[in-house]
Design a protein that fits this description.
mainly beta; 3% helix; flat; seven-stranded mixed sheet; 39 strands; single chain; 39% strand; disordered N terminus; 1 helix; 546 residues
Length: 546
């Protein structure tokens, strides 16, 4: 009998096993992050004052919902004694306190995604020696969750690649070529083993030469290059680059303006090999060819270390090519009878030769203004189109409006077409009723012809509802299609007076609506990544995460 009871008891315990599992087994795990390494210029720095470096620790909540309990984060500063001095940065997203031995921060909750724990300013200690290093670790505690710690190595001294700005011509014509001189120096305290030269150009600018030790991006996807407008070249320059030495790339790097060039841009940068940004596109190498190299221009190798000041590794340049584009309004005249619902396509195409990209500002290149003919009512509006009143003022109801504004993204390709499919119900066939489609730059009232548009006469067109069964069919006249003078002289340096919604999808699938005013610089090159975009601002290299 005792054996049977023991067996039943054992079975009961097994059955209850899952019920008595500690609750914390299912607690979420959050990951703390920070740069793998940070370099400090030895005291007192180049200007005679300690040069600070910024260090940010963050926490990643990979779950889909916020964590609403208080968390405490601690950084032990004792390993930094004699290596670096620490201060809290001025702006903090957490409640942080600093003592001689630790930083302690408290947060009331964690949003889904990434949240800042603390921003620190570090300087090399007064008596710290080049080469000295220490590990700085952040840990976290809370009820109902655990944290994975993050460690950043703080090191005094290191390389510092500095890239000189090149003297380039901003004004050019399609087909123009010019050489890009690349000169850089190592102004740090340690050598660099291998340098990667990266060049990024927008759609209208390209490199003539191809080198064996360079990798090149290729725009092979649907819709390229208008999704981002960038090409990337990365060249590995072998060798040891000593501190206190200036180097010059010895091979030719020739920039050429394409037939469709207009408002374009270039970024070029040097990185210690291994620290270059990872390209978002596939990079391909030529099968053979000469190698690009760098030679010393003026007068100890060491282990690789982080760049002391990555912000001076990169330069950027904007080009304005004397070129034009031609936006042509397009519309279909649907056929139907009273009571029917018909489909109509409105939009425009760019006849080129130039592409137009506002990559730096991220503003919409063009707006399509659609006036609905009398007797018809819009029953379906495509994404990216906004209903307005007859005078262009905003309205709440999307359906049944007398007028619609549809905006592009910040890039219009040199042979790209935009089409916005509407559905219209024919309430009544009205003799003489016409609709109109106009394309141009943004204005509060609708559109205006851009100065870079070479033919303003085709910026507006008319359409009608064609009666199926012998009803009245208005006839659009040629005089209804022209509203602007074509006498303006387009120029790549001209600026538009306002911006528009930032969306990035061609062919009727636009991302957003609304308006914004602004000046367009470069038309943007950011020059996206992509982006761009972007606002597609020039990408700066940031420290990697541990």
């Amino acid at each position: 009998m005792r054996k049977r009871i023991s067996l039943l008891a054992a079975c009961g315990l097994v059955a209850l096993g899952p019920a008595i599992t500690p609750a914390h087994a299912a607690d979420p795990v959050f990951t703390l992050t920070g740069p793998a390494e940070i370099g400090l210029r030895p005291h007192p720095g180049q200007s005679g004052e300690p040069q600070k470096a910024s260090l940010a620790f963050r926490v990643v909540n990979d779950s889909a919902k916020p964590f609403d309990r208080q968390s405490t984060f601690t950084i032990d500063l004792s390993p930094l004694k004699g290596v670096a001095d620490v201060r809290l940065a001025q702006r903090q997203g957490s409640d942080c306190t600093l003592t001689a031995t630790a930083v302690t921060c408290k947060r009331g909750g964690l949003w889904a995604g990434e949240t800042t724990v603390v921003d620190l300013d570090l300087t090399a200690a007064k008596d710290g020696k080049a080469g000295a290093s220490a590990d700085l670790t952040v840990t976290g505690t809370t009820q109902g969750a655990t944290f994975k710690a993050a460690t950043t190595k703080v090191r005094v001294g290191g390389p510092d690649l500095v890239l000189e700005p090149a003297r380039l011509r901003a004004e050019q014509k399609p087909g123009d070529q010019q050489n890009l001189p690349v000169v850089f120096a190592n102004e740090g305290t340690e050598a660099v083993q291998g340098v990667v030269l990266e060049l990024r150009t927008t759609h209208g600018i390209g490199l003539v030469e191809r080198y064996e030790n360079c990798s090149y991006s290729e725009d092979t996807g649907d819709g390229q290059p208008w999704n981002t407008g960038w090409s990337t070249v990365q060249c590995l320059l072998d060798g040891t680059y000593a501190p206190g030495t200036v180097y010059e790339v010895s091979g030719a790097l020739t920039l050429k303006a394409a037939p469709h060039a207009f408002m374009d841009g270039l970024t070029y940068a040097v990185y210690a090999a291994g620290d270059q940004p990872k390209s978002v596109r596939q990079l391909k190498k030529p099968t053979a060819g000469t190698k690009l190299a760098a030679t010393a221009r003026a007068a100890k190798a060491s282990a690789r270390s982080v760049d002391l000041d990555p912000w001076n590794n990169l330069q950027e340049f904007d080009f304005a090519t004397r070129n034009t584009a031609d936006l042509v309004a397009t519309a279909t005249s649907p056929k139907g009878k009273e009571g029917e619902t018909v489909r109509a396509e409105f939009g425009f195409r760019n006849n080129g030769p130039a592409w137009v990209a506002y990559l730096r500002s991220g503003e919409a290149v063009a707006r399509t203004d659609i006036v609905i003919p009398a007797g018809t009512k819009v029953t379906k509006v495509p994404t990216g189109c906004e209903a307005v009143n007859a005078d262009g003022s905003r309205r709440e109801q999307a359906l049944g409006a007398p007028r619609y504004f549809c905006s592009t993204g910040h890039v219009v390709g040199e042979k790209e077409a935009f089409s916005y499919p509407f559905e219209l119900k024919i309430d009544k066939l009205v003799r003489g009723a016409m609709g109109f489609v106009s394309v141009g730059g943004w204005t509060p009232e609708g559109t205006q012809a851009p100065r870079w548009d070479s033919d303003h006469a085709n910026d507006k067109t008319a359409f009608v509802i064609i009666a199926k069964d012998g009803g009245a069919t208005p006839t659009p006249t040629a005089s209804a299609t022209a509203t602007a003078s074509a006498s303006a002289t387009p120029s790549a340096t001209a600026s538009a007076t306002a911006g528009a919604t930032a969306g990035t999808t061609a062919h009727g699938g636009l991302a957003s609506t609304g308006t914004s005013a602004g000046t367009l610089a470069l038309g943007g090159a950011v020059l996206v990544a992509a982006g761009g975009a972007l606002t597609l601002a020039f990408r700066r290299k940031a420290s990697g995460h541990a």
